[in-house]
Write a structure and sequence with these properties.
The protein is α+β, with helices and mostly antiparallel strands and about 150 residues long. It has 5 helices and 7 strands; from the N terminus they run H-E-H-E-E-H-E-H-E-E-E-H.
Length: about 150
């Protein structure tokens, strides 16, 4: 069931760290971010954009659902690019991530915490799957549940 929830988010991106002032016209904000990343995003590429509530009231996250997975891949390919909200008049880092279902968000948080405790080198998300790796040359392990986390890390 969790995999089905995650699959429904395949064409989604979550953009974190935007100031509230950027929330006025979300589609324009997505176009601006695309320009800064060197990706052309047209209105026909976007299915829907909406804000997501956060604990920190000074910034907000948005979820963008693209018509195709291609734009998602292009944006995720630019994740290492230093993107700051200075393009929107305030300087804060902006993060572009895959949109995870709540169960996988919790699992990713637990995985990251456990990775730090055990001094593992990598934890990442790829295609909606949570992956860990102990060292550069060690095998990649896919985590699908808390049981996997307890058993693996």
């Amino acid at each position: 069931m969790t995999e089905l929830k995650q699959y429904s988010r395949t064409n989604n991106l979550e953009i974190k760290g935007l100031p509230i002032t950027a929330m006025e016209c979300l589609e324009t904000t997505v176009h601006t971010l695309g320009d800064k990343l060197g990706i052309e995003i047209s209105a026909s590429d976007i299915d829907v954009v909406h804000p997501v509530p956060t604990k920190d009231k000074s910034k907000s996250n948005i979820v963008v659902r693209f018509q195709t997975r291609d734009k998602v891949w292009q944006c995720l390919g630019k994740r290492g690019f230093q993107l700051l909200t200075s393009i929107l008049k305030k300087t804060r880092p902006v993060y572009i991530n895959e949109h995870l279902c709540p169960e996988f968000e919790i699992l990713l948080g637990q995985t990251t915490q456990r990775r730090k405790e055990k001094a593992w080198k990598f934890s990442l998300v790829q295609n909606g799957r949570i992956l860990v790796r102990k060292a550069e040359n060690s095998p990649i392990v896919h985590l699908a549940s808390e049981d996997d986390l307890k058993f693996t890390v």
